[in-house]
Amino acid sequence: PYMPINSAAIKAECTTRPDASKNPLIKQVVRKPLEEVLRYIEAHPCPPKPDPIKNISTSINNSLTPSKSSPVINNGSPTIPGKRSYEQHNGMD
């Protein structure tokens, strides 16, 4: 897989064999009759999907979702310049 490919040699070989490029080898797909497919589907049905688990207690559901903590407000000068707040634009702070 790590050998270099000689594209010039491949192009030269393709030009010497024009019949092969006109008729590519495509394997015909053999399809089964519809009745046979239906018989297979009837004999092998999909397993039923399990019902979702319904918990009556809401305290369990609340403990599974992480609570959002309040963002940290830094009134000092930021170390990295970023978006300025309303107060910084208007000089109220």
Layout: helices, strands, pairs:
Layout: H1 7-16, H2 18-22, H3 34-43, H4 58-64, H5 86-90
Organism: Pipa carvalhoi (Carvalho's Surinam toad)
Domain Metastasis-associated protein MTA1 R1: 1-40
Biased composition (Polar residues): 55-78
Write up this protein.
This protein has helices spanning 7-16, 18-22, 34-43, 58-64, 86-90. It is flat and about 80 Å long. The protein is built from five helices and no strands. It starts with 6 loop residues before the first helix and ends with a helix. It has 93 residues and is mainly alpha-helical. Helices cover 40% and strands 0% of the residues.
Report the span from N to C terminus.
66 Å
- Give the helices and strands as they follow along the chain: HHHHH
Low-confidence stretches: none
Please count the beta strands (DSSP E, at least 2 residues each). 0
Backbone CA Rg: 35 Å
Shape: flat
Derived from helix and strand composition plus strand pairing, the structural class reads mainly alpha
Mean pLDDT: 76
- Major sheet attributes: none
Count, helices: 5
Give the strand content.
under 5%
Q: Bin the helical content.
A: 25-40%
Please provide a brief summary of the model.
The chain has helices at residues 7-16, 18-22, 34-43, 58-64, 86-90. It has 93 residues and is an all-alpha fold.
List keywords for this structure.
single chain, 93 residues, mainly alpha, flat
